[in-house]
Amino acid sequence: MAFLISIVATYAATVSFGILINIPRRALNVSGLIGVLAWVIYSGIVQIGGGSVTGNLIGAFVIGVASMQAARHKKMPVIIFTIPSLVPFVPGGQAYQMIKNFALGNPAVAADYLLQVVMIAGALAFGFVLSELANSLQRRYLTRQKLLKQTGIKEK
Amino acid sequence: MTEKELDEKSVRDNLVLKTALTAGRIMMENGSEVARVEDTMKRIAKNAGIEHSKIFIMVTGILMSIQDGAGAQIEPVTKRTFDLQKIVVVNDLSRQYAHHDITLDEFARQLNELDKNSLYFPFWLQLLAAAFVSGPLEVVFRHNYNLCDFLITCLVGAIGWAIFYYLSKLVRVRFVSEFIASVVIAVLAMVSVHFGLGINSDDIIIGSVMPLVPGVPITNAMRDVLDGNLVSGPARAVEAGMSAAAIGLGIAMVIQFY
Q: What is the number of other CB atoms lying within 10 angstroms of the CB of residue B146?
């Protein structure tokens, strides 16, 4: 039940953030679905004990790759899909605890949360790097196929 | 070439430059990554028959020159908003131009039109969206399934967004609006818990500030650095960091007073 609520909440949050940054109407649903897909994979990894850093890394990777497919299919810029779907991955809770503990004068606890924020942000960025790699591999494969088709040469 | 032909060429070159620069500026203003802007501008020049163009893009301005003919021109980028719809429209126009569905004059005219008009969703829908960013994320982040907290978070988030929205029209500095909105959010969360409407003020604040999170600059900073745009990437990271700091300071201030 809690899982179902979370899925609905993730979808609603992703689509709503899309409305706030004004992405086109026909991209709203797809970005919501990408957000849910990445979040389900993330929580699956956390459930089996993979840790939140690995979860965020793979979540960002999934967002990067899925957004590229959506962008190619819908002929729209890829950021339209990545930005809203990254929203459920923002380390908001940890960042808040960091600020709160700094303000209340517990710098040691705050530093601990700061480290968590940095780790998660780094994992997200690195997941993105990996997805760029996958996307450029795919792009090379597609252009190669197109070229082969045009020239009519059979691949050995 | 006769004098008349030269004149015509220079007029056309100027139109190409102007169109490409306007397209680039609209995209930069509304939060596109640098690589995409450069690609679109190059394509526009290429489709207008100019094989080689040189483009230099920064967050605050664009410089473009084309081979022999018109001199390089500069287009400053002064506004900074997040309207991704405009990027898509410029993209579509550029694609139509590539397929010869519209002429260069028509392209330039439509860009000017786009520049003047705002394509945002109506305000009530944005308010509703802010509510539905805040509430659900409070649930997702904190695993807090309390209905009261959910509803209060939706309400506080929507109020925070409304304040941010109206202050952004009054004050040109984005960070000020973010700071004041987050102060109001934190105060409202504390007050609601004080009167027993909500239970956990931490969760309410975390959810409610989510609509203010600078998602566009963060993502773009990451993409620009990865593309090797070492001027725009860090500049955008600073922008995102300032926004985050403004939100954080607002909350920290209220917590300390409380």
A: 16
Number of domains in chain A: 1
**Which 59-118 residues of chain A touch chain B by CB within 8 A?**
75-77, 79-80, 82-84, 86-88, 90, 92-93, 95-97, 99-100, 102-104
Per-residue pLDDT of chain B (258 residues; tens, 9 = 90+): 678 888 888 888 889 999 999 999 999 999 898 999 999 999 999 998 888 889 999 999 999 998 876 778 999 998 888 889 999 999 999 999 999 999 999 999 999 999 888 778 899 999 999 999 999 999 999 888 889 999 999 999 999 999 999 999 898 888 999 999 999 999 999 999 999 888 999 999 999 999 998 888 988 998 898 888 899 999 999 999 999 999 999 999 999 887
Residue A37 lies in a domain: yes
Is residue A47 situated within a structural domain?
Answer: yes
Domain count for chain B, please give it: 2
**Cα distance between residue A103 and residue A82, in whole Å:** 33
Q: Do B219 and A8 touch (CB under 8 A)?
A: no
Angle of helix B104-116 versus helix B3-29 axis, rounded to 10: 30
| Interface contact flag, A20 B141, Cβ < 8 Å | no
The number of C-beta contacts closer than 8 angstroms across A and B is: 146
Out of B116, B144, B172, a domain closes at B116
Same domain assignment for residues B151 and B62: no
Closest CA to A132 of A60, A75, A84, A73: A60
Q: Tell me, what's the ipTM? A: 0.91
A139 assigned to some structural domain: yes
* Range list of H helices, A75-106: 79-86, 92-103
